[in-house]
Backbone:
DNA sequence: AAATCGGGGTG
DNA sequence: CACCCAGATTT
């Protein structure tokens, strides 16, 4: 059991040198071959850590290959076109990650001679670099003994050290960071941190952990007590709300469609989409006059396409998709364009609108 | 401290 | 369906 006083001092009741050795030896032998493990290039490590936030390894691998191919160096990413960068991230989600990454990379070029800073304070100030990413990059690329506490590490250490704090609370991470500072190998911080995460991914899984195969089973307090399945403790979050929209597929001139760019901030910022109207604003039978008024056009045939249901982490979209052939559109705004199907493929679309786009290709 | 921000996989 | 994933930022 981990004890701590008011100042977050943690006493770790296990054989630390033995634990380090067991963990690192296992990691060196059993680690997966992953594209970002080919070398220790700080830029590549950084890109991989951003991609891996809330995202599984298998999902990231193809994106990582393509991203590094398109933007092989920090300078290449810094000088790249923003829309092309967003396009490379299309389908990966949490798009602010890549916009922040490009912002940060530009800072590194401007302020640090295009070298990823080794100073924890400097690196941690960069856009999109939080406590986890800071520790991960500095330990993996530069061998610094900094904690890198993610969901895996909290799960693994909650079991090994029997930490029963609620990991849904932001401040709980600090308890785990303090534990890692005591545990971490100064000879090989990279293998130690990655070993904890790899253990969480391969052995110490959320459900049905493979304790019989665990290289640190003998250090695990929860296993000793037979309560590993009850950890970590995490309170559940509120369930999401639903929003219903009409998606307007406006076709003009045969094979020209109206697309619009979403605002610079908020959900799916700067991604492109077919125009959407909240269903509460206009019912389906009034859609044609609504469009004719709004775009100063004459809409003919409304064709109902396959509706789309799309689940985000905190909202669900119910999309009523309608295709409308209409005359020349007027009143096109700055953030809107009419594009052919081929041109649309070059724009970054969220997955929800890719589902609409795919229907047009059929 | 709680909400926001994506998308896919699992049991 | 709920839960989770190599989290960070904003409110």
Residues:
């Amino acid at each position: 059991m981990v004890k701590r006083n008011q100042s977050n001092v943690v006493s770790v009741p296990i054989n630390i040198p033995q634990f380090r050795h067991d963990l690192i030896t296992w990691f060196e032998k059993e680690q997966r071959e992953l594209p970002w493990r080919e070398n220790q290039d700080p830029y590549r490590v950084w890109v991989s850590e951003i991609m891996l936030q809330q995202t599984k390894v298998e999902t990231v691998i193809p994106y990582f290959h393509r991203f590094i191919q398109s933007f092989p160096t920090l300078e290449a990413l810094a000088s790249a076109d923003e829309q092309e960068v967003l396009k490379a991230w299309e389908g990966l989600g949490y798009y602010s990650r890549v916009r922040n990454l490009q912002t940060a990379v530009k800072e590194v070029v401007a302020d640090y001679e295009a070298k990823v800073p080794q100073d924890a304070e400097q690196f941690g100030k960069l856009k999109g670099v939080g406590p986890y990413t800071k520790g991960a990059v500095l330990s993996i690329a530069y061998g610094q003994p900094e904690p890198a506490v993610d969901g895996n590490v909290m799960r693994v250490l909650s079991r090994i050290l029997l930490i029963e704090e609620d990991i849904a609370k932001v401040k709980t991470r600090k308890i785990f960071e303090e534990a890692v500072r005591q545990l971490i190998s100064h000879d090989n911080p990279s293998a130690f941190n990655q070993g904890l995460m790899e253990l969480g991914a391969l052995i110490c899984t959320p459900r049905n952990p493979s304790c019989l195969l665990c290289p640190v089973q003998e250090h695990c307090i929860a296993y000793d007590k037979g309560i590993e399945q009850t950890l970590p403790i995490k309170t559940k979050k509120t369930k999401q709300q639903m929003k219903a929209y009409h998606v307007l597929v406006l076709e003009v001139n045969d094979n020209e469609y109206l697309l619009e760019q979403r605002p610079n901030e908020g959900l799916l910022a700067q991604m492109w989409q077919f125009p959407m109207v909240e269903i509460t604003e206009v019912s389906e039978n009034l859609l044609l006059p609504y469009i004719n008024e709004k775009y100063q056009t004459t809409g003919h045939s409304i064709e109902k396409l396959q509706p789309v249901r799309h689940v985000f982490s905190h909202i669900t979209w119910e999309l009523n998709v309608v295709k409308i052939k209409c005359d020349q559109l007027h009143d096109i705004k700055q953030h809107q364009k009419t594009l052919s199907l081929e041109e649309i493929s070059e724009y970054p679309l969220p997955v929800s609108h890719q589902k609409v786009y795919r229907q047009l290709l059929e």
Summary: Strands of chain A lie at 3-4, 10-11, 241-252, 256-261, 272-273, 276-278, 299-304, 308-311, 315-326, 336-339. Residues 54-56, 58-59, 91-97, 169-171, 206-208, 237-238, 266-269, 310-315, 350-352 of chain A lie near DNA strand B (CB under 10 Å from a C1'). The CA atoms of residues 258 and 338 of chain A lie 4 Å apart. The radius of gyration of chain A is 25 Å.
